[in-house]
Amino acid sequence: MSEIEREAMEYDVVIVGAGPAGLSAAIRLKQLGGDDMNVVVLEKGSEVGAHILSGAVLDPCGLDALLPDWREMGAPINVPVKEDNFYIFGQEGELRLPNMMMPPLMNNHGNYIVSMGNVCRWMAEQAEALGVEIFPGMACSELVYADDGSLKGVVAGEFGKNPDGTIGDGYEPGMELHGKYVFISEGVRGSLAKQLIAKFGLDVNSDTPKFGLGMKEIWEVKPENHNEGEVTHSMGWPLGFKNGGGSFMYHLDNNQVYVGYIVDLNYKNPHLFPYMEFQRYKHHPRVAKVLEGGKRVAYGARAVTKGGYQSMPKACFPGGALLGCSVGLVNLPRIKGNHNAMLSGKAAAEAAHEAIQAGRQSDELTSYNDDLRSGPVAKDLKTVRNVAPLSGKFGPLGGLSIGGFDMWFQSIFKFSLLGTLSHGKSDAESTGKAADYPEIEYPKPDGVLSFDRLTNVSFSATNHEEAQPCHLQLNDDGVPIGVNLPKYAEPAQRYCPAGVYEVLRDDDGSNPRFQINFQNCVHCKTCDIKDPSQNINWQTPQGGDGPNYPNM
């Protein structure tokens, strides 16, 4: 616990993160406990939805379980999927896979194309109507523990530190928010979740976590190029078949199209430049035809969990629980996790309510952890658990073929001939030495379909107050130039989708030095995951800082 004196507020449940998991938990707690249940949600973004980035095609099963009348309640979920396509791309052409070849779970019939940012804004309205207190712009910078070692609460709303970490003139110490239980729903690779997983050994029985980097643009396209309700996925070009990843293109309403690309972060060649793979992808004839004459209106990026069922850490600990993508609940082949996030929030809320009604607090909500591993979330994730390790071992084409067979087999016979496969190395450990791999030449962005990183970052409305400590912390300042540059060609220059990291040199190419432009950071967490030396630690900046996504 910090030596700084802070005021404290007491709640039944404190929830960190106003994403689909945290808001579902808040809504369910108030449905069960009414006015007797005091619930607060703390959101680091400037408003609810400001930091939400997702594809997204929403499976409504989570919302059906939480708010069965959402269709009559004005939810911003209005575009049902009408057409479902999957392609294998070559540079100039494509091969469409017939829908009948795809396992039944891949069918998007009954799902909706949505802005999850807008869905979360709507969910926040429902939560507030039930009496939930929601505080945006309140980054949670510190965990507070009770004398018995259980999690007691969090510190939120600390402002005004100088860049060197000392107390500034306008310093605000923030406040401690205590709960009988504390829910951590920060999304992928959250800084508090990472601390809790380490402190309580929540991952000792889990496989290696695995991730991808998802990048997304919103385009307004010409009416004749728009097909509302169309969902298209692809794999192959430009990444090829040695690196995992693929694209999505979703046609929503108002002549808007979501265009995105996911690069699996287990790639070996440190010269690979994920952002430029995304930009190159938009020049494929099928994609370019849709975007021709249109304009990009927003950009963002976010890490995606892809480890699946076997990589889930234990989701409960003394005093609280991990929710949603803090556990890693994305169904990789479906590219969907929002429904599981909602289901996890609902289950955690039910476990906490039952415990509080029984007079308990600050213990482990084991019934919640059991639900995740045996309930609807487990059913969704178990069937696809081998797709990521197969893709990592045999490449995306082999993973698609063998993984497709495994999913079909499980759909019919309810078990897998392969058992549960392991992922092997972490994404950081997968990075090879620069000398062992060829450099990759990328076409220069044309400013029409493809754009440079800094121009695109301006379309994320990202802002950080520069007179604060850098939230991207190096464990050892000497590693980027002393280790990563000679060994890996310092891949931070390339894996960051926002141009945060640079290697600067004198005019003659000498005197290399590492620069962190933290004001560009879109909070994707890729650096925390992919850095081969595991030397970068992502922490929350001041509340309200970061991207301000309009309708991602």
Task: Describe it.
The chain has 552 residues and is α+β, with helices and mostly antiparallel strands. The chain has a domain of 222 residues: 3-Layer(bba) Sandwich (FAD/NAD(P)-binding domain), CATH 3.50.50.60. The protein is 26% helix and 23% strand. The protein is built from 14 helices and 24 strands. Strands 1, 2, 8, 9, 10, 13, 19 and 20 form an eight-stranded mixed β-sheet that branches. A seven-stranded mixed β-sheet has the order 6-5-15-16-17-14-18, covered by helices on one side. Strands 3-7-4 form a three-stranded antiparallel β-sheet, with no helix packed on it. α1 runs parallel beside α3, α7 runs antiparallel to α8 and α8 crosses α9. The chain is globular, with a radius of gyration of 23 Å. It starts with 6 loop residues before the first strand and ends in a 14-residue tail after the last strand. 53% of the residues are buried.
Low-confidence stretches: none
Helix content: 25-40%
Determine the structural class based on helices, strands and strand pairing: alpha+beta
**First-residue to last-residue Cα separation:** 36 Å
